[in-house]
Design goal:
Layout lengths: L6 H8 L3 H4 L9 E3 L11 E6 L2 E2 H12 L3 E3 L1 H4 L3 E2 L2 E6 H9 L4 E5 L5 E5 L9 H4 L18 E2 L9 E2 L6 E6 H7 L4 H4 L6 E4 L8 E4 L11 E5 L2 E2 L5 E2 L2 E2 L10 E8 L13 E7 L7 E9 L4 E12 L2 E12 L10 E14 L2 E14 L5 E2 L19 E5 L6 E5 L4 E17 L2 E13 L2 E6 L4 E2 H5 L19 E27 L2 E20 L2 E5 L13 H9 L6 E23 L2 E21 L9 E21 L2 E12 L3 H5 L6 E14 L2 E17 L7 E17 L4 E17 L15 E13 L2 E12 L2 E2 L7 E2 L2 E12 L2 E8 L7 E3 L9 E4 L4 E9 L1
Parallel strand pairs: 4-8, 14-19
Antiparallel strand pairs: 1-4, 2-6, 3-5, 7-8, 9-10, 11-18, 12-13, 14-15, 16-17, 18-19, 20-21, 20-51, 21-22, 22-23, 23-24, 24-28, 25-50, 26-27, 28-29, 29-32, 30-32, 31-32, 32-33, 32-34, 33-35, 35-36, 36-37, 37-38, 38-39, 39-40, 40-41, 41-42, 42-43, 43-44, 44-47, 45-46, 47-48, 48-51, 49-50
Helix pairs in contact: 3-5
Length: 864
Amino acid sequence: MPKSLSKPFDRRLAWGSTAAAALMLLAAPAAVHAQQTPQQTRGSTYSFDIPAQDLSSALRAFGQASGQQLAFDEASVRGKRAPALSGAYTAEAGLKRLLNGTGLSAQPTASGVYAIRAKTLLVATSAQSQAAPATAVESEPETPAQVEEVIVVGTPGGKGIDKLAASFAVTTVNADDITKASPKSTAELLTLVPGVWVETSGGVAGANVFVRGFPATGDAEFLTIQLQGSPIYPPSTLSFLENSSIFRVDETISRMEALRGGPNPIFSNGQPGLTTNFQLKEGGEETHGLVKLSTSDYDLRRVDGLLSGKLADDLYFMVGGYATTSPGVRDTQFDSEVGQQFTVNITKRMEHGKLNLYARYTDDHGAWYLPFAINVPGVDKGTYTQIGEASRFHTLQINAAGATRNFDLADGRGFKGFVAGGGFEHEFGDGWTVRDRFSLTDGDANTYGLVPDGAAITVVSLNTVVPGTISTRGGAALGPNDYVQNWGAWIVEKKIKALTNDLSIGKTVGTHQLSAGYYASSFKSDDFWTIGNVEPMQVKANGDYLAAPVTCADLATAGSTSSCFKFGLTSAGDGRVDALYLGDSWQVIDPLRIDLGVRRERFQTDYVVDDGPGFPDGLAPRTTDYSNSKTSYTVGVNYDINGVSGVFGRYSRGYKFPSFDNFREGLTDTLSVDQYELGYKLRSGPFELYATGFANEFKGAKFADVGGIQESNSNKAHGLELDGRWRSDFGLSLALNGTFQKTEITKSSIPANKGNSAQRQPDWMIRFTPSYDVTLGSVESTFYGTVSAVDDRFADNANSQVLKGYTKIDLGAIFDVADFTVQVSGDNLTDSHGLTEGDPRSTSGANARPILGRSFKVSVGYNF
């Protein structure tokens, strides 16, 4: 029997729609109905008026009415009847009614497709059983047909490849997974990715992200965030700025792809570590929308909105955004998390290609949470924050002439600006394809915070230096057993701008898919800093400053180990990257493919900095004019064991050039990264499993934390990543990801650190997420939870401060009632106080930053 396709799908296929073609089944005896990618949120309802008829026709009518993508085997539905379906239903509820009594179930895949499958857990053992001619199939196949999940990250120009066919380790997170994760920050979403250790304890925009063994002090040196395939800011990290600080996840995001290692050094900005690509939702044939209200036990007030649909023939739109405010889990006595975001995405589908344009404006910031004195009695590790109304406002000197400015630490850390861009792809025939992706980022990425300087000491200790009564500026007299500590107002202002373009040309020649591309980016960061500015305070949630005559130096003399430093600068940095890359995907024989890639990159920087004691002094500006070129390369081998499983191996050499901050510290070496990977992939019926072994070697790692000691290292790491999921036919789903690794400093400019483990990276971490879908009367319900466990880590390369491992438990439930969706979630239910980092300026262990304490959140969404 030939494939049976609905007319809308035939028409789009004739137009060369890449999105539709990529969703065809791998198996030959399959039928696919595909509308525009379903972008509605969970709980969206659709109006149906489908008469009783044969199941195949009913499923096609269902797809046309809902815009949902359905994949099914013609043999599996042959001879089956579907009941009438009339009224408003969610996609899940409608499909359940159509399939009732057929022995089939609808299982959502990670890419959002509903696969219509027999209720069986059998796994195919050969590709031949799926590739048999349809005319020879007279009974139901042993296994459900497999549905492609197309990823674009790690491919030249974002051309796309089926996840099962990829010769590298990539994790996909769809909109439902994002909803269940309910992340408080973009970085928190990355905890779903194996091989990635994320410290999200700094707030909505103060994360540290570490990638499987890559040596770093903090921030996110080896993370690039892409939107629609383009980097939002090509340098992955500058001091007080990492990619997740300027990106917010909301209802406009349809999915995230996360690639570790692999071909990363060849494409896009050449990131050797982790590249995450966020895809925006697109409009469909029908107009749909969402309004969602959220609140929490920490007084969150948030509204989200989304609207998508059709503007004209082949022209679609999506607009959405949010507005939010809250004092935060760590209550600062004022609304410290405030923001709004608006996104528009326009898609034009053409006969042989696609044009996409988008723009996103963000104005969102939150309190920057810092390590604090965890050894002081009465300090609640889950909710404590030193900043409050008494320490919010500061007047600080900003230049040698004595000028001052007023600063409000409530501005915290975040981004005010826009990201705009687009993509174009066109097939010219005869195997030629052109793709281009571009983006522009412009805005302010400031960081204002209250930072500890040294350990907390008792008033008794302070009285050895300052006799008599110790009082706060507000007039409170402190007792002898009260604690005091030095804290400083840190002001870091950054005006950033970046323009990127990635042009790729592809040509199919026999068994070779050749690619050639040119990546260009220019970026800048103009900075003003005044950090240190240390003054003594009472150690108390939202504490007050101490009254005169107590000084920072008094606490230092009394044993707090404070440095009482001040440092400031004005700087201007301009960078440019030009890179040519070549790729070849060679299908040697049917199951064997070899992927080759090479990149020649030129990196240029002009940088000038004027720094001084607390403020720029204008006395000795330093300039840097730097240029360097490197060649990165990779080779990957992919072998399909059968139609549902395969193995891959890969070697890559990549580089990380120095940043503006490195030049300020006189560090100009380029980090080289060698990565070896060996992986196994399985995607069959309800099972998905991706297991990747890795080994990395690093030369030229630089550590120059602000106020810390400079260090130059070589490192190595090896380990195993696991990323698996199982879905039953009765609603139960189990997901597991884990990382097991061993890191080692093989060479260090500080000899005593040789042989130690890399700082702040655990030897193992595991995340287990069960989920259960069940119908309670007329309510479609989902109950889910997550158990996250992490091993001990060291706060520094000297391995002098141990950060104990911990376990965190989250639970949630989602209820779909008519056009409404209600979600209830609890984060860190056991109120675990796991530590994520110590204090880089005081490694005694007195200061540390715990994870956020227990919190609850409720959302109510209306779908229309």
